[in-house]
Design goal:
Radius of gyration: 20 Å
Low-confidence stretches: 168-172, 273-284
Distance between the termini: 37 Å
Structural class: mainly alpha
Shape: globular
Strand content: under 5%
Order of helices and strands: HHHHHHHHHH
Length: about 280
């Protein structure tokens, strides 16, 4: 009887991790749509990054104080260096390039290209010798095959926009010049998304190393958000001087800021992300 209960408990624990990953991906789809609407309505890319990281820093710091107040891990210069690069990869590069790419493409493209993150993470992990690669094993062959398929799909999504199936404007579909302009924006936006996902893949690899050195994931997440806040604020001060860009109203821009904090990702870190389970982070 006890053995059966133990097997059931282990089964529930295993399913819980995958269920949370699936839930996070469903939330990510809504995140793409809300941010796209906000950016199309005039929300500044740089202001959105800064606001999201400010709220993220405050909320994760609160949870860190409550849940990890007994944490006695020491912050060394090596950890501070890693936190700086995590903020750079996740905030300045990852999040900013993502919003620029989303603005020039669509939520469906952003979601489709995000499937490259596991492949890019796998490649970087192998190059950094954080992931063993024995091509004679079936699991390694599956990873390599999936990487090739993902890269081929991303290439198609980047280079081929496709034709209009349903148009709200039945009178005309635009001039050749406007179509060329849209195609250039589509290509540029896709490249920005690819750069964002490459940066996030590097972020995940570095984060796996850092969380082993500093085994307090919620506190580490808060410090990452703080680093991203400072670096993105410096970037915004340089690239966006207009005071109107920082105005928030009771509309989709405020919803986008709150949603960009991505509490579902925090849920993932809280219940799933531990050093033995870091591979799950590829699926977010």
């Amino acid at each position: 009887m006890e053995a059966r209960v133990e097997r059931t408990r282990k089964l529930v624990e295993g399913i819980k991790a995958y269920a949370i990953c699936i839930f996070c991906n469903v939330c990510f789809a809504g995140y793409n749509i809300i941010c796209k609407v906000s950016l199309d309505n005039g929300m500044s890319v740089y202001a959105l990054v800064v606001y999201a990281y400010i709220v993220g820093t405050l909320t994760t710091a609160l949870f860190a104080v409550i849940l990890e107040r007994k944490n006695d891990a020491k912050i060394s210069m090596v950890i501070l260096r890693d936190i700086f690069f995590l903020g750079l990869l996740g905030g300045v590069l990852g999040r900013t390039l993502y919003y620029i790419g989303l603005k020039d493409t669509s939520p469906s493209v952003a979601t489709a290209l995000s499937n490259l993150i596991p492949s890019m993470t796998f490649i970087l992990a192998v190059l950094c010798r954080k992931e063993p690669l024995d091509i004679s094993k079936l699991s390694a062959q599956a990873k390599v095959g999936g990487t090739v398929v993902a890269l081929a799909g991303a290439t198609i999504m980047t280079l081929y926009k496709g034709c209009v199936v349903i148009s709200l404007n039945s009178a005309h579909h635009g001039t050749a010049a406007s179509k060329l302009h849209l195609k250039k924006h589509w290509f540029k936006g896709s490249l920005m998304l690819l750069g964002s996902y490459l940066s996030l893949s590097a972020f995940y690899v570095l984060q796996t190393v850092t969380v082993k050195r500093y085994p307090a994931p919620i506190t580490l997440t808060s410090l990452n958000c703080l680093s991203g806040t400072l670096l993105s604020a410096i970037m915004a001060a340089i690239l966006d001087h207009k005071a109107s860009s920082w105005t928030l109203s009771w509309d989709m821009s405020l919803v986008a800021v709150l949603y960009s904090v991505r509490f579902y990702k925090f849920l993932f870190h809280l219940f799933v992300y531990t050093p033995p389970n870091h591979d799950f982070d590829m699926y977010l």
